[in-house]
Amino acid sequence: MAVLAESGSNPDVDLLYDINGLAKDAPHWFDRVMEFVGEYGLLLAMVLLVLWCWSTVRRRGGESAAPSVAALVWAPLAAGLAVLVNVPIRGFVERPRPFVDHRNLDVLVSGKTDYSFVSDHATITMALGVGLFVANRRFGIAGIGLALLEGFCRVYMGVHYPTDVIGGFALGTAVVLLLSPPATALLTPLMRAVERSARAGWIVRRRPAAGSSAVLPGARQPVESEERDLAA
């Protein structure tokens, strides 16, 4: 791939220098924080957000619990699939990391020797964010916000071009949305079956408290309850 101009003729490179230039003016401790957040912290935050959403869905229960949990299961599966799709894309494009072709960048993470397009971090976080949005709008908006912050961090750290991040956002979103109909069609019946299971039902909805007369969807009412209903 042709080497990009260092400045002036390419908006992608200009924006790279503008965002990465913030790292040069920031205190050393702030750069270390951004390094951790961009490399590990936001990925961990996304996982915790998915778990929080799952806990909320199973606590509320209702008829929408199984489809929502199915969407939450699909989110990390889609993220993993998107990363696999990215493997041949990187090999085909063969775009070097920004610091290979451009000088005077403040690179916060060393040891990056693989290709740059597209960003795995941006792909994973956006896939999780969009997957969360399918399951729950409120959590999804928060997840997409974290994904956008991840993209900014990757450019700030000097390890990706802005277009690497945009490509990752597009790839993660496309995999989640394009494959969501067949994925949810397969996963939703599975989650409904899990919901009816005596042992694994807690995965989809919180177990009722002892003595509660709550009945799982598709399950028969207790005989005593049926007799009371008939008597009434």
List the helices and strands and how they pair.
Elements: H1 11-25, H2 28-60, H3 65-93, H4 98-101, H5 120-135, H6 137-156, H7 162-196, H8 223-231
Helix pairs in contact: 2-3, 2-5, 2-6, 3-5, 3-7, 5-6, 5-7, 6-7
Question: Could you walk me through the main structural features you see in this protein, from its secondary elements to its overall organization?
Answer:
It comes from Streptomyces lucensis JCM 4490. By secondary structure, the protein is an all-alpha fold. It is built from eight helices and no strands. The longest helix is centred in the last third of the chain and has 35 residues, at 162-196. The termini are far apart. 38% of the residues are buried.
Tell me the total number of β-strands: 0
The shape, in one word, is elongated
Largest sheet: none
Q: Which runs of at least 5 residues are low in confidence (pLDDT < 50)?
A: 1-8, 210-216, 219-232
Oligomeric category = single chain
Query: Helix amount, in percent?
Result: 55-70%
Q: What sequence of helices (H) and strands (E) makes up the elements?
A: HHHHHHHH
- Mean pLDDT over the full residue set: 85
**Approximately how much beta-strand content do the residues carry?**
under 5%
Number of helices: 8
Structural class: mainly alpha
Span between termini:
79 Å
* Rg, Å, rounded: 23 Å
What count of domains describes the coordinates? 1
